Each structure stands twice: as structure tokens, then as C-alpha cells.
Amino acid sequence: MSPILEGQGLALRFGAVRALDDVSLALWPGEVVAIVGESGSGKSTLLRVLAGLTAPQSGQVLYHDAEGATQDVHALREAERRVLMRRDWGFVHQNARDGLRMGVSAGGNIGERLMAAGGRHYGNIRTAAAEWMARVEMDPARMDEAPRNFSGGMQQRLQIARCLVTRPRLVFMDEPTGGLDVSVQARLLDLIRSLVAELGLAVLFVTHDIAAARLLAHRIVVMRHGRIVEEGLADRVLDDPQHPYTQLLVASVLAA
Amino acid sequence: MSALALEVAALSKRFTLHLRGGLSFPVLEGAALALRARECVALTGPSGAGKSTLMRCIAGNYGADSGQILLRHRGAMVDLVTADARLMREIRAESLGHVSQFLRVIPRVPALEVVAEPLRARGMPRAEAEAQAAALLARLNLPERLHGLPPATFSGGEQQRVNIARGFVAHYPLMLLDEPTASLDPANREVVIALIAEAKARGAAILGIFHDSEVRARVADRLHEVRPLEDAA
Known about the structure:
The complex is a heterodimer of chains A (256) and B (233).
Chain A: E1 5-14, E2 17-27, E3 32-36, H1 43-50, E4 58-64, E5 70-72, H2 78-87, E6 89-92, H3 96-99, H4 106-116, H5 122-135, H6 152-164, E7 170-174, H7 182-199, E8 202-207, H8 210-216, E9 219-224, E10 227-233, H9 234-239, H10 244-251
Helix pairs in contact in A: 4-5, 4-6, 5-6, 6-7
Chain B: E1 4-17, E2 23-36, E3 40-44, H1 51-59, E4 66-73, E5 76-79, H2 85-94, E6 96-99, H3 111-121, H4 126-139, H5 144-147, H6 156-168, E7 174-178, H7 186-201, E8 205-209, H8 213-219, E9 222-225
Parallel strand pairs in B: 3-8, 3-9, 6-7, 7-8
Antiparallel strand pairs in B: 1-2, 1-4, 4-5
Helix pairs in contact in B: 3-4, 3-6
């Protein structure tokens, strides 16, 4: 078995700031990896670079597809990269508004992604959209309503349904529970946890929530000042942190 | 003689507290231990001697600094000290069971699913996994009306039984048990003693910490004393 995604020697500067300083990271099929760190640690930049959304100044990102071919993500043409993102990948944004089309109905948001991936039969698409709304614990009877009619937590569920309906192999998530009420976060985390296990997805997600990382991730990567300072089994990184910065992060949360 | 299931050699573990000015203290130095299949060994020693630390190093929850922890996995002896996160996950799914002292509760997930999860992770269909989980929970006298509820609101003893069921539902060649009977009543303690005997009978090696001396006397074939290190400072 080979990794599904590999970042090698990634570097990116914003002016004097090293957002990524020689970062390498591999993600394996079925593996859930959390990238943790404080604001400005470079964790979101790393996610965007690995997801092909931001180009690195040096280093490369390799994607190994289901057919066994390897693609250099940042060397692909724009059209090829879009196909990859529609067909094999999903991206869940922190703000649901960035991942949804707010002018399109809830069901339309899910169906649109299916159509983009080649679905043509209207009835089937509508049925799939209703099924996915139920799966993310939304009322399918509300599929014709606009996203703005739903709460923040519901919009996030809708974004997840839109992302997963095409059965991606690899999903990127940027603070998927950020900005939500704590009770809503717990439900959403649990939903993500069960869907990820059920579908056997590889997931790379960014969070500043240590408890979320423990709950969802198999492996944790700790970033600081654009570098990976520690990584390993999720429970080991949290229960036996080695790097001073990881010890500080773990000590700063209540009962993670 | 039965096959070697676990061999710990020259194992050292030190904690360095960077938030306390780099205070550093050793807990294990040169620890050694061997366990054969069908054998239950109880760790003894005073509180703070490093029994739990040794157990957690074997479980992969703590990273050892040096030495070896050789465990039989897929027919070969694999060193857990140098195993990466992926290999450790695989070992935990197939070869190394661990009943920790406390259940780490996952919000909203019903007890039955918590217990069935190790079987599901091995690819067993949901219905079959949940049937086995339910049978084990029933054996541990957890009322059926609780099976569908998340354990967050359960009593300490009920959570402990969920934890034990989760640890015993799948079979592993090596099981680590940290105080498995601590908060149990006599009837459930008997069930745990029986579960340990059955695990041994099917070939498992068991390493445990049992503060209850009666339980320890009944399940352990042998004691292994963990001695506190001389005050290094």
C-alpha cells in the first residue's frame, strides 16, 4: 500500500513570514490526520497547499489515485485539477458559506455536485440528495429551502453532504466545527466520525480544538512557525507530548 | 512451553516537563519482562513505581525512550518502541487489547456501538458485531435498556463494564488490563475473572494491574514486581 497523498519539502513565505518551512507529510488510505496548532502556525496554509488551492514556492504534492497513477497536484493544468477535486476529493470549509452556493436550494447544493461529477438523471439526483440530507440528520422535506434558512450547524451538515455525495476518497476539512456552539460541535463531530468510519475515507483536517483531534484523528501533526514540531498516534501525542510547544498546547485545554 | 507473546527488554522511559523548567525524571530504567501465551502476569509494586507507565508504554500510549517491546503480530515479533503510528494502529486492532481504567466517552455514541466497535473495525457486519456486544454486556449485567444509551451518564461501575466489554469483545493474543475490577460489585468481579480465564484458555497472554489482592491471587499465574527507581536526583 502507498500513501494517498504526500507533501514533500513544502515551503511558502508571505513576505518575511515563513508560513511553511520545509514541511513533509504523508496521508494513507483510510487514515484520519489532524493538524493542530495556534493561529499563524501555518496549519491552514498547509491544508490549502496539500489540497491544491495554494501553490507552494518549493516542494511538491503527490496524489496517488485509485488506478495507481501518481499526479503532481501543483503541476496539473487547472482543468485537470478541477476534475480531481470534483471526482476524488472533497473540501469542507470552516464557513459553510464558502462551501455552499447560497442562491441554490439545499437539495440543489447536493445535486449540483453530483451533476458536476457526471450524474444526469434528475429523479436519481433528487433521491440521492434526499438520502444524503437524511444521512447528515437534516429533514429531507426541507430540500427546496435555501441554505440561509438553516442554522450554522445545519449549514455545516449540508456542506458535508454536498462534499460526500460523490463518494470522494480524500477529504480536507478546515476547522469543520469552528464557530459553532459547543453542543452543535459535539453532534457534528460525532456525525463526521461515523461517516468517516463508514465510508473509509482518508481525512486531513485542521483544528485548534484538541478534544476534536483526539475524538476524530488516528494521528496528530503539531505545527508551529510553519514547521511540524511533533507527530504521532493521536493519544500518544496528547498523553505523552514531547515538544515544549505540544506540552503547552495540551496543558492549555481543560480535560481534552 | 507456550510461545513467547511479549518480551520487554532494557526499556527506559523518562518524562521531561518543559513547562516546569525542563524538569526531567526517569520512571523506567532497563525494565525487562517476558510473557508467554496462556499466561497471566500481575504487575506489583508500590504506587508510583511505574506499573502504569510500563503498561502504557506497551499499549503505545506512551513512547519509550530506549529498549525494546517485542510483541507477536501477524506471526512475527514486532518492536513497538520503533513502530510508527500506522503499524501501531494495525497492532491495536489485531494483536493488542487494552482495558484502561476509565472509559473515554464519545458523545452521543450508544454503549452497544462503543462495545461493538473493535469488531466492526475488523470488518464484522454490524448486526453480528452488535449481537456479540449485547451478549457480553448482558453477561456483565448491564441492563438492556442502557445498551442504546451513550455511557456519558452511566455510573462509574456501569462505565467500567462497558469498558471491559469493549476490551474483551474481540480476541487479542495479548491483553493489558489496568485495574479491571476497581469499581465492580462481587458478581461482576466474578464475570471479569471468568473472562480472563476464558481468554487464557484460548491462548491469550494477559498483563494486568490488580489492586484487589483476591482477584490477583485468583487470575495471576505469576507476579512481576516493578521496583521504584532510586531517587536519581
